[in-house]
Specification:
Elements (H helix, E strand, L loop, with lengths): L1 E5 L4 H12 L3 E6 L13 E4 L5 H8 L2 E6 L6 H6 L1 H20 L5 E7 L22 H20 L2 E7 L1 E3 L17 H9 L6 E4 L11 E2 L1 E3 H16 L4 E5 L5 E2 H12 L5 E4 L8 E2 L4 H7 L7 H16 L1
Parallel strand pairs: 1-2, 1-4, 2-3, 4-5, 5-6, 6-11, 7-10, 8-13, 9-14
Antiparallel strand pairs: 9-12
The structure holds uridine-5'-diphosphate-4-deoxy-4-fluoro-alpha-D-galactose (UFG).
Uridine-5'-diphosphate-4-deoxy-4-fluoro-alpha-D-galactose binds next to helix 6 and strand 8.
């Protein structure tokens, strides 16, 4: 029986598919290729379809014993401009997927949630007991689906894990897959563009935050560490357990720290420009990852330098 990786042609989903295969799991990728890339699913069975296509999903589920759901829209800014798109895909269509799963024999479900469910945290590092009060529609859609999983888990014996990702970054060591968004809004790929002369400078969104160097602090976690947590999540589900947990490193890095690391690793100067704060950016988001470490016997192993060196290798390959 296979693991159905829904959204497996996307950034995090494709890394999960690769790690699953390395650990000996059979994998089927299901993706509508709306933001995913066919190349990221190369070498895997790829079924092109939408999460709301009940018949197509039901058919493939007969060959699966678990589902990982990565397929979602994930731009915070766009979710503010166009909440309808976010609620339709990340909630309505995702619930159709979940109901199709419930009509099959599959009862193991792993969901890509986000630290955006916490909104502005009351305390950093953030534990899972921090109130879930999202401050944008993207976070609200992820919270809605987390709530559905909890209720389905109680009522219908579904086993689930909701993984609240902090800042996913980096690329697979093979150099074959990595991050590719259009438009790109994430810090590390944008720093690379500035280093490669593809943009005049990196805009640093605010240097007057109450942090040591005035720039925002985030918890950057290597995408392969995230992927490995998903495999550990499957083993956890096999024990009959369910939970929601943070996936982060527990270490915070400022925007300036990341720029300095890119300069050191790439050997290129990164021109920067101090810009206005970006609306809705909390000064500091750092995970307390101890629950995942305890429940999954998993720990993020890769450093910021490994994040940047793998991502840099991928960025250079794509432009060579
Ligand atoms: N930043 C800049 N300049 C840029 C881009 C980003 O200074 O050009 C800063 C941001 O202000 C932020 C940090 O770099 O402090 C990281 O920004 P990203 O856009 O890379 O990531 P976010 O922390 O905003 O977003 C991540 C995930 C989202 C999730 C969100 C939760 O990508 O999916 O965390 O807050 F919703």
């Amino acid at each position: 029986m296979a693991v159905l990786v829904v959204g497996g042609a996307g950034y995090i989903g494709s890394h999960a598919a690769h790690v699953l295969r390395r650990k000996g799991y059979d994998v089927i990728i299901y993706d509508n290729l709306c933001t995913g890339h066919k190349e990221l699913a190369e070498g895997f069975e790829l079924i092109v379809g939408d999460i709301a296509d009940t018949a197509k999903i039901a058919k493939v589920l007969t060959r699966c014993d678990s589902v990982m759901h990565f397929a979602a829209h994930a731009y915070v800014g766009e979710s503010v401009q166009n909440p309808k798109k976010y609620f339709h895909n990340n909630v309505t269509a995702a619930l159709t997927l979940l109901d199709t799963v419930m009509e099959s024999r599959v009862r193991k479900f792993i969901f890509s949630s986000t630290c955006a469910v916490y909104g502005n945290p009351v305390k950093v590092p953030i534990t899972e007991s921090n109130p879930r009060q999202p401050v944008n529609p993207y976070g609200a859609t992820k919270l809605a689906f987390e709530n559905a999983l909890e209720a389905y888990g109680r009522a219908y014996a579904l086993r689930f894990v909701s993984f609240r990702y902090f800042n996913a970054a980096g690329a697979d060591e093979s150099g074959k897959i990595g991050e590719s968004h259009d438009p790109e809004t994430h810090l590390i790929p944008l720093i690379f563009q500035a280093a490669q002369g593809k943009r005049a400078a990196l805009d640093i969104f605010g240097d007057d935050y109450p942090t040591a160097d005035g720039t925002c602090i985030r918890d950057y976690i290597h995408v392969t560490d995230l992927a490995e947590a998903h495999v550990a999540g499957l083993e956890y589900l096999a024990k009959g357990e369910s939970a929601a947990m943070n996936l982060g490193t527990g270490e915070g890095c400022s925007v300036k720290d990341v720029v300095a690391a890119v300069e050191r690793i790439s050997g290129s100067k990164v021109p920067t420009h101090i810009a206005e704060r970006r609306m809705g950016d909390p000064p500091e988001l750092v995970a307390d990852p101890s629950l995942a470490e305890k429940l999954l016997k998993w720990k993020a192993k890769r450093s910021l330098d490994e994040i940047i060196s793998t991502a840099w290798k991928w960025a250079q390959k794509r432009t060579s």
